[in-house]
Queue: 2 jobs
Job 1
Amino acid sequence: MTRQSFQKGHVSRPIRTSNGETIFKIRYRLRTAEGKWKQKSETLRGVKGRKEARAILEQRIQEMTPEKLLASELTLKGFIEAYWRHYLDRKCAKPSTRANYESALRAHVLPVLGDLRITDVVPLHIENFLQQRLSTGLSPKTVLNLVALLQCIFSVAVDNDLITRSPVRKRHKPVVQRREKPIWTADQVRLILAAVPARYRALFATAALTGARLGELLGLQWKHVDPKQRKLRIEQSLWQDQLLPPKTAGSVRSIHFGDGLASVFAEHSRTACRTGADDFVFLSPTGAPLHPDVLRKDVLVGSTWHPEKVRGVRFPYVPAFRGKLHQLSNWEFEARPEAAWARYDRHDGQDLYSHHS
């Protein structure tokens, strides 16, 4: 229930303008979200008399809440800084997720929409913004992510009664064509493993035969590798030198492996500079954890053995570094992908790695 206001405000006498129009000016006080009083004035046109102006003044006093006053002055950039980032804190958003949001805001959203008052943003602003982004060459998938980000921001504003409805509509979402992801065959993976620098070979072999995410592989410590049980335990992910939980709760899992990958781990443990239980399995020559951006830039893209150039053979390149190979006997992936990988490893893994040992 809205608290009753006992202020009366002020209505001016009729004011005749130079063009012959009669106007009234009203003044009243509003309490801000910080609890302070603020004077507000307004010019009324088309009002028949002072009695009607007084009725409008009383309506303003009753209707205007601190939330509405705040929204009338708050820009989208100000709302993000003052409220939306705190919402992410309450939701315990992962650092990697927040970094992606901040990058999208900095590069795309704030330069275009940041200075608009949050109450002034309408669906046409969103439509023009998305058309502009697509015209600059952004992919529909990236633009779809921007739509989702804007919808989240404006939903928080709706929940706090700053606006009555989000300006983002369902029809703002671009259509994203689903494409089959490139899949490396066993022969292609052999070419990669033969050409990859020796210090990265164990990492690439583990990626090929487990299908684990790059962050999950870089977060592996020797205590997560069980050579007797032939099992890897995925419990964490490495991002920006921080150990974080995996992407989803279901990503915490055990992956069984066969003879081929077992021999890779055995050889890697003999040459690794650190093999303590809490040491990372895959390290740089200096003993520091590998950085995914360095791998993508210097190894996947910047080196002379780029997967598309290996021995002159061209085949699909997977920028996310999660290429999965076909099993030679064409086994289909089962409900638990690690079981299929382990089965492939037992049957063909030895041949896959035999010429590297």
Job 2
Amino acid sequence: MAFLEFQVPTLIVYGMDSLIRLPELATPNSEKVVIVTDKKPHNSAVAQKVKRMIEGYAYGVIMYEMKRYNTQDLFEGVNITKHARADVVIGIGDSTVLSIAKVIAQFSTHEFQQEEVKSHRKLLMKKVRYIEIPTLQTICWGLLPQTYITDDTDKIKKPYIDKESVAHSVIIDPSLSEEVPLNDIIYSSLEAIAYSFDAYICKKANPISDAFSLRAIEYLSVNLKRLAVETANTKIKGNLSMGSLLASLAIYGSALGTCAATSMGLESQTGVSQSIGAAVILPHVMEFNLTAAANKFIQIAAALGEKVTDISVIEAAIMAVEAMRRIMLDLHIPQRLSEYGIEQDRLEAAARVAGQYEFLTYIPRPASKNELVEIYSAAY
């Protein structure tokens, strides 16, 4: 008999200035800390703020700034963390930085100590606590059992899966995104909508994940429309942070899908970021699934703010796609892959990579390599 189970072991702390909770979560007993971030000005500034905040409580604080955003950074970070015998890893940045920071903590955990218990030797595993601090509106990989990191050898994002290696806590403080470039916030929020769509039409979807997906789509779309007019409004950015958190919980309860696979495939072959790829490809993935998940598009259209009374299922589905396109138009972002300097002859290779992701098992309409190429071509 199948059962519905949903358990999130991570503590989620959300709210303006919630970063003040960090010392009690990271260093209650004078732990050694490694801060993992990058050299982007807004991330580096937050990391320095975090360092100052915990220095009086921690036994020692080491700052590691990644440069390559791939497995080289991962293994370098693991070496630093193990050598320092750190108790805590704090990830600060966007989804790419947080993915690597999470796995640094995961790999640094496999450290054993011997203890004498009644003349028998017992092996104890030392776990490194991971705390995640997003600096913009992004998927919280610390909540999820899986994450994806670019392999330095072939530039393809590979899965790292461990149900036990989730974040101890995630601190989402909207005030940290005040200095983030506006386009970064827009693309990251659109990426969260794309993955919420993936999770909602997925075969693994359930009433709990559906509630998170629809609420995420609603929160993100409504506030992106407002952001197009009030670009400096901190409250709107806070609402987008909540929308991205809801999207993360939707993925946790369901799975990723075609938007995630095609955006990761595109990044591996063109260098265009996953968030940009997901945003541009989303309307075309929606069209690809019009017939396979038509009934779900009624709720999607409603979440996007459309009136869906007295219209057919297909009309609602078309309305949802057009509503998504209007949001992107209002945000003044290019809607064609060709506008990002992508060469069309790279699309087939991108489709080959996209088709390898295991979560495509759960998409409502199976997509062969040729069909993935068609999605790319439509977006081109």
